[in-house]
Structure formats: structure tokens, C-alpha cells
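Entry:
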Amino acid sequence: ISGMVAPNQEYTFYVPMKAPLAQNTNKTYREDWSFTTPAGGQLLPLWAQIVVPAGLVDGAKLDWENYPNNTPVKGGTAFTKTWKIKNTGTTTWNSGYKLRHVSGNLSSDHYDITIPYAVAPNRTYSFYVSMKAPAAQNTDKTYREEWKLINPTENTLLPLWTQIVVPAALVDGAELNHESPAPKASIKGGTTFAKSWKIKNTGTTTWNNGYKLKYLNGGLSTKQTTLSIAGTVAPGRQYTFKVPMRAPVTRNIDKFYLEEWHFVNPDGKRLLLLNANIKVPAGTDIAKLDWENYPANTFVPGNTTFTKAWKIKNTGTATWNSGYKLRHVRGNLSSDRYDIIIPYDIAPKQTYSFYVSMNAPAIQSTNQTCTEQWKFINQNDKQLLLLQVSIVVKGKSKPNAPTDPVVTPLNTTSMQFSWKDNSDNENGFRIVSGNKEIWKNANTASHVMTGLTSGQEVCFQVQSYNEIGYSALTTKKCAKTYSIPNAPTNFKAVALDNARIKLTWNDNSNNETGFRIRNGANKKQTTGANTSYYIWTGLAPGQSMCFQVQSYNAYGSSDWSDSRCATTKKVD
């Protein structure tokens, strides 16, 4: 006590104290003191007893997360990590509560992430962080990144992390293990064979039907179809592709041929370049003449254009192509003397025909023999066959006489004269008919004469001629034009009774088809050939009627006769 305190007076003691920190529930706290005499006797017990109400406590726990520990994530994949955190304390979270990066490099932004609104106790809030898995390595790799939830005083409420496993990279690899036929294998021309490639999977991926063999270039395969793997091929296993092929035809020299394919993955990336490389051995070059027109010493008219043909047979083992040619050697029968190439392949035992346009020279006074030579050569200009054309152009002479003259009437005014042309060197023909001469061009075999009369007789002869002279005349041939019949005469009309009149006439021709009869009213009746009367019926008693008659055939009609009249008898 400071100073003196008389009886009945008061004295106040002051003791500084501090309430313990609040707990999750109300807590009672007591402290005891004693007021004592100088001798130590207790005069009065004293205490302080307080209640500390339940305090505001920060608490948090992880409620849910995606990508839990050791989740496999493909290398290079971007993903979003999510932590759903529950407020397990008694405080309400606000923007002073943050998610803070601690370590690791899965995320690109390491800034604090604040809670943008109030989160009451027992509520949750989700944090989202953009991350990216590192590139895959040759082995599986584990990656970890750590964050923490802190309160406004930056005390850690909850440690957080993401831990992923990036699987080893899937590597595509392939190598050629075996192929058949071997490179530069010798294969006979025209032979069909199968090219096979056995490929080993040296990568870490399993091949499926997305892995394919694709054609690149070359002409050995019979089909350039893309081939897919059937089934699957695990790493370390092998797969065989087979492609049907055909060796090109044999040439006269050794020939090497290459065809390329490539093995690709589903993305079209080439894993392996493959080729078929073969040798087709040289064959023999032999040719023979199989056929020709205009054989040796064929007679050809002067100044004539003709086409010489040689059919040549390939009797060797090499296939001919455009390197094989027909080449002019000597002679002037042809006008174009350029090399003539074979435009397509000619296999052994097949034939090919060459055609050369030629011109026989002009006719001379005597026969002349003309020749020209060509040669058939291979790619190396080696002569395989010597070919020749030899023709004879006859000297000038009188043309042969025509034969087989024929005279044919065409109608009543024209006639055709024909003959056989027996020469190839005439300039034309001379026709003789009475005192007339008719000239016709060469290579003519008939003539039509017009302007004749009915039944006119005409005679013909013909001969050929050229600048050397005339042939003999043919025998004389005569014929008459077709004629119309002669007109009937002595025409009479006599009444037979009261209804009929008999008409009679003289038949003066032997070529009529029949007779026509007409009365005054131009009513007509006809009779057959070789008839000399007709009875007109159906008349009335005492009826008078006049008539005329004419003969006719296919070529015309005669003149009408004079008119004759008669009257039927009257009835009493």
C-alpha cells in the first residue's frame, strides 16, 4: 500500500492483465490474489475471472481439384489447374486473401490471384491457373508446381500444388529390314514379279492403318494404289508390303529401271524411302521382211504416184521402240526422204509396216527399171535390214484395143454404148457411129447418145488412142431405140342392135400393150394386145355415137384414128 489507510478508509489496487487469445468456443479464465498482513496472514482473498468469447479463426481445406497427383499429361498440352477451397474458419474471406506462387514453372504467370468477392465460412471458392505440360522426353518425367493460400497478414492457410507426369514421347521410326528382289536384280523383260519390303518398327508408336505405303514415281508397278497396314505393328515388330510389278520390255542394251515409294505416318510424314531397282538384260536385234507390195520388177505406169509398203517382223528378243527407224539410202522414187520412226513398242514376233509415198517417172521410148533403197536401223544406227523397191515403167506404145462392145437402148430417144478398157496408156477413145465421130477421155468405158427417134437403128464402133497411134476398131454393134406401136387402120363402127355398137380395126403393130377407145364424150375403154375389135355396150335405142382408136405401149401411144360413128337400132 502506498501511504496510510485509516480504518474505514479504502485503497484500490490495479493489476495489468491480458486476456488469452480467443478460441473456437467461449473460454473462462481466473487468476487468484491474496491481501495479507505484514506478518503474512491473509486478510482477504481476491481474484479476477473473465470469459473470452469464441474468436474469429482463419481456416481452409482443399475441397476438390482436377489433375490430381501424377496425372499423365501429353507433352506440350495446355491445361487449366483448378483448386476448389472451402472456408473452414470463422472469418469471411475477402480480397486480402490470395493464391501465391511458391515454386515451379508449369504456369506462365506467377502473379498473386486475389479472391474478388466475400467468401463466408463454410463456402467455397475455386482458383484457376493456366498451365502447360513441358515437351515429352525419352522417358516419363514428373513436374511439380507449388502455390499457397495466404490471409491478409500473409500467413499461410493452405499449401497447394499440381504434380503431373509427362509420358515419354511417342517416336516414329522405321528401317528396311529386307527386300526382294534385291537391288539391281536382273529380270527378263516383260516378266511379272512382286516387289516386297520388310520394314521394322524402330520407334515407340504402334503402327495401325494410318501408316501407309504411297507411290512416288516410276513405271514398274501394275497398280499405283496406296497400301495401308493391316492390323497393328508394335515397336520392334516387322511388317511386309508387297507390290505387283512388271519388268519393261527388253531393249537391245541393258536397261536399269527405278520406281520409288515412301512409307508415311498418319500425318503424312515420310518415315522411309523405298525403291525397286531392277536391270532388264539386253535382247537380240533381228528383223526380216514379212511382206511387201510392188515386188521386184512390178510394172508401174509412168507419172503414177504409188505407196510402197514393207511389213517387217521382229524376230529377235528386244522390243523395238521409237529409236528404231527406216532410213533412206539411195534412189529418187520417193519425194520425202526423212527417217521414219516406229511410234510405239513392237514386241518380239510382232510386225510393223512402213509406208513410203513414191512417184514413177515419166514414160520414155523404152522400158526403164527404177530402184530405191532404204534400211531399217536400231537405236545405235546398226542396220538390221536392207529394203529395196524396183519397178519397171513401160516404154511408149499404142494402147490395147477395147473389147466387148455392147449397145443398149435406153428409151425411144437415147441409147448407151459400152466397152471394156484394156489399156492403161490411152489418151482417150474414138467412137464411130455412121458418119459421126465422138471423142471420150481416158479411162472411160461408156457413152450415151441422145436425140434419136423411136425405133431408130444406130451402129457403133470404138477404138483407143494415144500420141503413138490408134488401136483397132471393135466389131460393129447395132441396135434400135425403143418404138411406140403403129396406129391401127381401117377403123369401122357398126350397130349390132338397139344397145350395142361393134368397133373393128386392123392391128398394124407387134409391140403394143393394148388399144384405147374413146367416144365423143371422151369416155375411154381399153383392150389387150393383138385385138382387132371391141363391142361398146349400154347404149339407148336410136342413140348415135362416134369413136376413135389408138395403140399404146410403155414407150408411148400412136395417133388416134379417124372418127367413125354409128346409131343403135330403134325399137318398133
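The chain has five domains: 60-166, 174-269, 287-393, 403-480, 489-567.
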